[in-house]
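stage 2 :: seqdesign
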């Protein structure tokens, strides 16, 4: 569904200087990420004036300028915070459920959310929702309620077919679009996989060959840029520092004057306008770290190398000091461009942005930066036996641990993903869940439904209902043999699918070996070609009785001799998720092989060494 969004920033400050509006652009960016087929058709900044806000809200609703209007700002306790009052004066119906979700989920983030006075409601056929004014809070609030927006708009606009379809999707079925797949049971089911068994290296090479980075660029605030990949090289537009600056608290002086008694003419603090009257012989200026060097001075003597001689009558200011050392030209002065020369290449394109790099960007005067757009990621679980991890379990059911593991594993490496639900073991349910995921995401990770049971339907649905290409359906590895990599075109857009095995450890290991590196590749992170390989001393025998290569989970640490050592994390059965708990490395043990204690082996490091 295409939705028309509007953004009204309420801020007297931003109204006077639109460049100071951070929440509005950030919201627009999140809206288009979540709903790529939709548009932001209305944007305005208004002062903190109730009548002005009311006038804009009436105009937007009566003229049908958008379907959903977000306001950002004016929801606090200050006298000028009147957005909720203006909203209540306009709306005809309150959307109390939306307001409750916004407040309850915000409180889970910070208890300060109790000070936010949010209101939501309907005017004509426009849904109006108040967000706080901070960039972080407004983006978080959008994330809390975005899933309900298509259904809300369909209800307001009386799109009966879409309302009915959404009800069916919520229930996991869509009878109006039957899957072409028929379950084959008993003797008719397939007993041998049609997919060749590829080696891990061969399979991943196929991924890299198939998945081409799209090089889509977005501009975001630097405070949101941590771990993102630069889409442009950054050059310094001016030297850093832009003026000679003191490196110490002390006295700016003329080196030619040498040591001895000096007259203290004045003082210079960081941020003061540089003194342009040149120092005369025998004069010094008291100076603080970071302050501009005054005209005529060519050295700084730190305060520890001076002695106080005389002060003013009231004792508040120094009038003369004794310099106890002989200063040298340039002493304790940061010269112009000593940190960064003008036009110097500071950050290379395709670099991963670290906290220090964000500081460098701020130092250069940049508050936004262009980065490579990340794919929209959806997570699916499959299986009749799965239920969300809450409430009591009924006989025969298990909690869905894979989804939350995948969501948090991706988050650990900087990727936000969406929960796209649990597909039941019916063709219609699998097809409906996939359609819902494809509507909002271009990179899908599923768990389960890829083995040889007659109820493992994912590959069949992908091929028969979506004309997907299964690039590989089996990999010569333990755990993770049934891993699937597929691509397809849905509504004229390419989708990438990794269908992972349902066993929890298989799901984790294949995510580390295939999913994370593919996301890095899609993001154009040139420095990441593969996980680092390290050599360690094995602290115990490791036995692989299977003919497949086994990816043994290891805990790598340093011993008292500062040597890297590795120990197995215990029973390596693929259903035992505890084997991943302390693991930070994977060691490949060839089939039918024993690696003995004391051997030096190579392993793949995917997490920090404690």
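stage 2 :: out
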């Amino acid at each position: 569904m295409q939705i028309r969004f509007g953004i009204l920033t309420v801020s007297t400050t931003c109204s006077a200087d639109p460049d100071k509006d951070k929440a509005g652009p950030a919201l627009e960016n999140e809206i288009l990420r979540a709903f790529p087929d939709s548009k932001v058709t209305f944007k305005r900044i208004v002062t903190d004036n109730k009548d002005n806000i009311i006038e804009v809200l009436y105009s937007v609703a009566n003229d049908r300028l958008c379907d959903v209007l977000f306001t950002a700002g004016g929801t606090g306790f200050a006298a000028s915070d009147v957005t909720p009052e203006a909203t209540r004066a306009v709306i005809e119906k309150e959307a109390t459920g939306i307001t409750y979700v916004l407040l309850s989920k915000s409180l889970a983030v910070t208890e300060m959310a109790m000070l936010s006075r949010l209101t939501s409601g309907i005017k004509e056929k426009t849904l109006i929702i108040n967000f706080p004014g901070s960039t972080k809070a407004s983006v978080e609030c959008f994330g809390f309620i975005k899933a309900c927006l298509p259904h809300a708009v369909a209800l307001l606009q009386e799109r009966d077919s879409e309302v009915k379809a959404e009800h069916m999707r919520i229930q996991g079925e869509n009878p109006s679009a039957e899957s072409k797949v028929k379950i084959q049971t008993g003797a008719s089911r397939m007993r041998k996989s049609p997919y060749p068994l590829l080696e891990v290296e061969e399979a991943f090479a196929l991924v890299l060959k198939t998945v081409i980075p799209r090089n889509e660029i977005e501009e975001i605030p630097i405070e949101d840029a941590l771990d993102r990949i630069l889409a442009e090289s950054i050059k310094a537009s001016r030297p850093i520092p832009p003026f000679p600056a003191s490196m110490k608290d002390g006295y700016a002086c003329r080196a030619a004057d040498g040591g001895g008694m000096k007259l203290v003419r004045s003082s210079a603090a960081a941020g003061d306008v540089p003194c342009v009257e040149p120092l005369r012989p025998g004069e010094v200026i008291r100076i603080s770290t970071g302050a501009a060097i005054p005209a005529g001075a060519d050295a700084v003597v730190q305060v520890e190398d001076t002695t106080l001689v005389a002060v003013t009558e009231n004792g508040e200011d120094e009038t003369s000091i004794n310099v106890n050392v002989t200063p040298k030209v340039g002493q304790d002065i940061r010269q112009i461009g000593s940190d960064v020369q003008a036009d110097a290449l500071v950050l290379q394109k395709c670099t991963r942005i670290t906290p220090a790099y964000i500081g460098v960007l701020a130092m250069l005067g940049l508050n936004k930066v262009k980065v490579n757009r990340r794919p929209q990621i959806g997570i699916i679980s499959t299986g009749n036996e799965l239920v969300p991890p809450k409430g009591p379990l009924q006989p025969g059911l298990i909690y869905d641990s894979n989804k939350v593991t995948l969501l948090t594993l991706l988050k650990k490496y900087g990727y936000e993903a969406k929960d796209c639900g649990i597909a039941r073991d019916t063709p219609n349910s699998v097809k409906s869940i996939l359609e819902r995921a494809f509507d909002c995401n271009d990179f899908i990770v599923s768990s389960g439904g890829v083995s040889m049971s007659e109820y493992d339907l994912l590959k069949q649905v992908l091929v028969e209902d979506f004309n997907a290409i299964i690039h590989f359906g089996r990999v010569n590895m333990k755990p993770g043999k049934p891993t699937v990599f597929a691509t397809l075109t849905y509504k004229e857009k390419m989708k990438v699918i990794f269908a992972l095995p349902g066993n929890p450890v298989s799901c984790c290991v294949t995510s580390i070996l295939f999913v994370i590196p593919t996301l890095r590749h899609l993001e154009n992170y040139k420095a990441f070609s593969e996980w680092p390989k390290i050599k360690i001393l094995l602290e115990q025998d490791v036995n692989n009785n299977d003919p497949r290569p086994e990816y043994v989970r290891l805990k790598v640490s340093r011993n008292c001799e500062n040597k890297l050592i590795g120990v197995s994390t215990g029973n390596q059965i693929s259903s035992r998720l505890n084997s991943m708990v302390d693991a930070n490395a994977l060691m490949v043990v060839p089939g039918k092989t024993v690696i003995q204690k004391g051997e030096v082996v190579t392993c793949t490091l995917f997490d920090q060494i404690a």
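stage 3 :: structure notes
- The chain has five domains: 4-161, 194-213+375-522, 226-239+339-372, 245-334, 533-605.
- Confidence is low (pLDDT under 50) at residues 172-176.
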